[in-house]
Specification:
Blueprint: H1 3-30, H2 38-49, H3 56-105, H4 110-125, H5 138-143, E1 152-155, E2 178-181
Helix pairs in contact: 1-2, 1-3
Bound molecules: zinc ion (2 copies).
One zinc ion is lined by residues 25, 29-30, 43, 47, 123, 128.
Length: 186
Amino acid sequence: MSLVPCLAAAAAGVFTWSFLEYVIHRWLGHDRRFRGNPFGKEHLRHHVEGNYFAPTHIKLRVAAVATVVTALPAFLLASGLGLAWVAGFITFYGAYEVLHRREHTHAGIGAYGRWARRHHFNHHFVDGRANHGVTSPLWDLVFGTYQQPDVIPVPSRLCMAWLLDGDGAIRPEFARRFVLREARRA
Ligand SMILES: [Zn+2]
Ligand SMILES: [Zn+2]
């Protein structure tokens, strides 16, 4: 099997995950019509608690099942190229999981890392109907849910540790992009 078709098949797998990332987050995570589905419940808790993530062992199990379920038909349909597609798909899913977790736990490195955090925390704290993509804005642009982040008000209760200095204030290097919002009193 030559390298170029193999890389193209893996890239198609990356593209497939990118689309599913948007679909799962937007419709299973945020559409009222699908309320109560297992992903939606975990995702709601992620939004409410901020630092909650569905258990890794569940994600690994789902990824293992998805690999088995897709690998056999992909192999039968396109042999080695089918497996390259599965490899691209599953690897990029893993990359998405790592990126999303690190957005919450660590400051971004480089222009992409900073962009990814602003895009995602705009979704968390400004408009949950916008910016469903995590690894890219592609499908938000396609489906018209892209929102250019302005200064992002972060509720102090949900604030990411990397955003704060030792006194609990926004670190100066992030102060142009994020502000703290105190909880509203009832
Ligand atoms: Zn998140
Ligand atoms: Zn969400």
